[in-house]
Structures are given as C-alpha cells and as structure tokens.
Amino acid sequence: MRIVDLPLNQIHRPLYRQNDPEKVQALMESIQSIGLQEPIDVLEVDGKYYGFSGCHRYEACQRLGLATIRCRVRRAPKSVLRMHIA
C-alpha cells in the first residue's frame, strides 16, 4: 500500500451514495482550515483508480475545487473490484 496525491478526475466512483450535506460542509471547513487529515482508500486495478470509501472527503475536496486528494492506494485484481461493486 502506498499513499499518494491523485487527481480527483482520475478516481472512478462506481457506487453512487447520497452524502450527508452537513458532514460535507463540516469537512470542507476543516479541509480549508487544516487540510485533509485522513486519506481516502482507493483500489488500483489495471492502472485505473476506484474509490469506495471516503465519499464525504472526496465530495468536500471536489466542491472546494481541489485538483488532487490524498489516497491510500492498494493494488488489486479485477476480481476484488467486482467484489466491491457487487
């Protein structure tokens, strides 16, 4: 596992989830003040990045207009990706 800053537009979010707007707003304020403290978890499958956790942090960074987000990247085969999507 490695920790890197990835461009937000390179992270695919295959599962749609409605985020709590109050939590997103609070995270936006925190990120503006002290930065992102906890990376999101991302799977790397065949050179593509898939995010399944950190939905609120991802949306907060996106709404702030940030170009990148700090990620914990774990390489995985397609079978693991299919399991996460199922």
Could you walk me through the main structural features you see in this protein, from its secondary elements to its overall organization?
- It contains three helices and five strands, in the order ββαββαβα.
- The protein is of the alpha/beta class.
- It has a single domain, classed as Conserved hypothetical protein from pyrococcus furiosus pfu- 392566-001, ParB domain.
- It has a five-stranded mixed beta sheet.
- Strand 3 (40-45) and strand 4 form a beta hairpin.
- It is globular, with a radius of gyration of 13 Å.
- The chain starts with a strand and ends with a helix.
Please report the total strand number as a whole number: 5
Estimate the global geometry from the Cα principal axes: globular
Name the CATH architecture.
Answer: Alpha-Beta Complex
What is the percentage of strand-forming residues?
A: 25-35%
Give the SSE string: EEHEEHEH
Keywords:
single chain, Conserved hypothetical protein from pyrococcus furiosus pfu- 392566-001, ParB domain, alpha/beta
How would you briefly describe this protein structure?
Helix content is 36%, strand content 30%.
Walk me through the topology.
Layout (H helix, E strand, L loop, with lengths): L1 E6 L3 E2 L8 H14 L5 E6 L2 E4 L3 H9 L4 E8 L2 H8 L1
